[in-house]
Amino acid sequence: MKLVLFDCDGTLVDSVRLIHEVMARTFVAFGYKRPDVSATKAIIGLSLDIAVSRMQGKPHVDDEAIAMTAHYKSIFPGVRDEADMQTPLFDGIKPLIETLASRDELLLGAVTGKSRRGLIHILEANGFAPYFVVSRTADDCPSKPHPAMVAECCDETGMDPHDTIVIGDAVYDMQMAKAAGATAIGVSWGYASVEELLTAGADAIAHHPNDLLSHIL
């Protein structure tokens, strides 16, 4: 048996346009300039309050970051519903998930900096909800790269971290996996570079969803 844990944003779905737009509107609402998209890409994967603080160059979450986080969450659904703000699956993800879900020796899960409501929306919108038997979100655990998300998914499913594979596009995913004692597989179609993923501890890099099959099966 293996437990396969997927990150969401940048791994399953291409959501940078949406996340950046909501973040930019939040910064403007609080009197700041619109951040560059590269700044947004750099924090995708972190829990939202920590992400806001990082983008402001603050070492810790303060009252303003908490207020900005609340504003981000309040406007997110409306921005998401705008016609040009969809979050499509990356090419090849749907058949990959369906193939993995058909294997009795695999358990699928999600570990994400999204809210639980946000994760549920993505899984249900793409028909993945029945396939993911365990998940941890920013509502449940400390932010990545803390290993709690992986550790709690292992505990819930009765799996050992050594039999667990974490798949993600961010350095935080790789760091989290290694801290938990799991295998870390980076994907090159997301928001971090291959070099960054390898430096963060990736055991391998997948350049297309099909490449993941050889690392899992």
Description:
The chain has helices spanning 16-29, 37-43, 48-55, 63-80, 93-101, 116-125, 148-157, 171-180, 194-199, 212-216, and strands at residues 2-6, 106-111, 132-136, 164-168, 183-187, 204-206. With 217 residues, the protein is an alpha/beta fold. The chain folds into two domains: 1-12 and 87-214, Rossmann fold (3-Layer(aba) Sandwich); 14-79, DNA polymerase, domain 1. A six-stranded parallel β-sheet has the order 3-2-1-4-5-6. Helix 6 links the parallel strand 2 (106-111) and strand 3. Helix 1 (16-29) crosses helix 4 and helix 3 (48-55) crosses helix 4. The longest helix has 18 residues, at 63-80. The protein is globular and about 50 Å long. The termini are close together. The relative contact order is 0.17. The mean pLDDT is 97.
